């Protein structure tokens, strides 16, 4: 070493790291004297080299006692940065994977894959953060970390914006709200450290990040808002009576009834509730004018038409049933037919018959239901020691209950859980269905005010999930069924 020192320790940089060169070639860097000895051993210097001997080691910007690195502060800051990136990776994967592999539309799947891709970038950025907060052996780790933080800030800001629209509590809020504050802190720290330095074209990098964020936002808005609203659900229902057949032995009329449903639109439809009912009507008739003020008001109160010669009609349920059942669905072009035969005595005394057929439908591009919804519960049976509805309150009722989920998983993490209850009740006079949506799986109103608030909430959720009721009916005079018998007599 007569020619002078071959080991040069450079001045500390802004973080306290000192570069080390041997013979003019940089061989490493160190945070401490111990790190310096480790680097020197790796290039062949003896363990007992006296680093304080200026004949062998040249110190610039401070001697062997100058190591300004704050180890714990650096490690805690680096760990905080890595934890935030990993947390963002997990959250984005949780949001994106269900849509990427289970969404019904192409746009929704693309939105899901975008979140999965963003989550992968967060994972890569977490690995890059280890080097960026360390000795920065790789040139572009700072830019990769900056990209990860920008994606985190953009996605968590989007989640918070969507949450503020409704301000409903969801457990996911405890993830993306702290992560939003973390991303603001991380961005400020990276800007102070000049994380973009070393990029050949930093302006293009910024433009690429902005374009990616804009594309993801537009795709999300299209898949979550525009597409599920622009295309209507077209489910056509028909109900009709067939040709009556007189029993050759008994005084009975066999009346066929045909029900048919077909999806003539482009959007798949899921059945939330369905029912058909067969009614027999008998009305008081008089040749004199019957439609006075009293009768007119009675008809209006019962939701019936006002008739000049008849009063309010008495109705009786002759038969009722399900068509396809809750949870079934119709893809575009799907159709289903159900036929049954109504048996009536010839002297039943009805004036006319009616078949009523209706469904409550949810568009499948807006939501889905958990599998528990497919299992019916009975109001008169205890399940695990609990009645789903007291018989004296609900009567004889079949109940289907399950968790509703938006098809776009971003909405699931920014909205509170919603549960749907679909009931079908049979009583001696009428059969009817009722669909109720609530944020509680077992909601029972305590008073009228709570019931009114629950009904308002249910109406809002029904509109949000695109649930609507469609129905049809057919009528026939009862006397027309007896006409063939009269001709044979």
UniProtKB/TrEMBL annotation:
The keyword Membrane applies. It comes from the Bacteria. Keywords: Membrane, Transmembrane, Transmembrane helix. The chain crosses the membrane at residues 80-98, 110-130, 142-164, 170-191, 203-222. This is Uncharacterized protein. The lineage of its organism: Bacteria, Bacillati, Actinomycetota, Actinomycetes, Kitasatosporales.
